[in-house]
Amino acid sequence: MTTNTVNNDDILLKLCHSVSHVLSSTSASQISHAGMVQSISRTRLKPDLGCFSIFDGGFSGLVVINFSADAAIEIYRRYMINMGMPESELAFSHTSDDVGNVMGELMNQILGDFIGKISKELQTSISQSQPKMLTINKELTISVDTNLDDAVARRVSFKTENNHIFYLEFAMDKTEFIRSADFEVDEEFDLDSLIETHGKNTPKKSESKSDILGNPNAKGLVADDADDLLSELGL
């Protein structure tokens, strides 16, 4: 977000990135979202597997993800295999409790990633409800009443690596955040990369000993350390 104003569609884009990032990394596959966003009148839970969560705080809203049976099973099985589970022990039906539990946990991870990033960027606090997952048959559609003031609702389609489609539906208060002139977002850093870089710059053990032994001011070296170093030098 580089502009001075952040609106509903900017927040939606950040949510789309969280969906793609979390599902791609946990399933070790490619999950992508469409470049077009659809304006809708209200959010609904639809077949075959619907999941929703409500968030509140700096702004209020609702997130719904409607998975087709094929999309849910593909993501579930890829996730479990990536976690080290044998394929023979995995469920084959989207109606399985195991599938519902995994998809609910993934929804929780998506919202955690989204809320963490958006709270930092917008300097606001947001909390979420525990995601609820429902198996829905072809004849059933459930409207979710958000009770929002001047609500904005959007739908975005996603595609799995095997070209199975699922949909994100998002509703929130119509809102706008205006960045003050002196506000700067702290740069995010990758802890693993930082540790790796630090490790590369750390002297090797033998080099560290050699430097210390060569220092006339060094005191109290144990005999074993000196013997090890002499042995390495062939003396």
What does this structure look like?
- The protein has 235 residues and is of the alpha+beta class.
- It has 6 helices and 12 strands.
- The chain has helices at residues 8-27, 69-82, 97-122, 191-200, 205-213, 223-232; strands spanning 5-7, 32-33, 38-39, 44-45, 49-57, 61-67, 126-128, 132-135, 142-143, 151-159, 165-173, 176-178.
- The strands form 3 sheets. Strands 2, 3, 5, 6, 7, 8, 10 and 11 form an 8-stranded antiparallel beta sheet that branches.
- Strand 10 (151-159) and strand 11 form a beta hairpin.
Nearest-angstrom radius of gyration?
26 Å
Q: Could you give the distance between the termini? A: 62 Å
- Proportion of residues in extended strands: 15-25%
Percent of residues in helical segments?
25-40%
Main beta sheet: strand number and arrangement? Answer: 8 strands, antiparallel
- Mean pLDDT reading: 83
Task: Summarize the structure in short.
Helices cover 38% and strands 23% of the residues. It has helices spanning 8-27, 69-82, 97-122, 191-200, 205-213, 223-232; strands at 5-7, 32-33, 38-39, 44-45, 49-57, 61-67, 126-128, 132-135, 142-143, 151-159, 165-173, 176-178.
Compile the SSE list and pairings.
Blueprint: E1 5-7, H1 8-27, E2 32-33, E3 38-39, E4 44-45, E5 49-57, E6 61-67, H2 69-82, H3 97-122, E7 126-128, E8 132-135, E9 142-143, E10 151-159, E11 165-173, E12 176-178, H4 191-200, H5 205-213, H6 223-232
Antiparallel strand pairs: 1-12, 2-10, 3-10, 4-9, 5-6, 5-7, 5-8, 6-11, 10-11
Key structural traits:
235 residues, alpha+beta, 8-stranded antiparallel β-sheet, 6 helices, 12 strands, 38% helix, globular
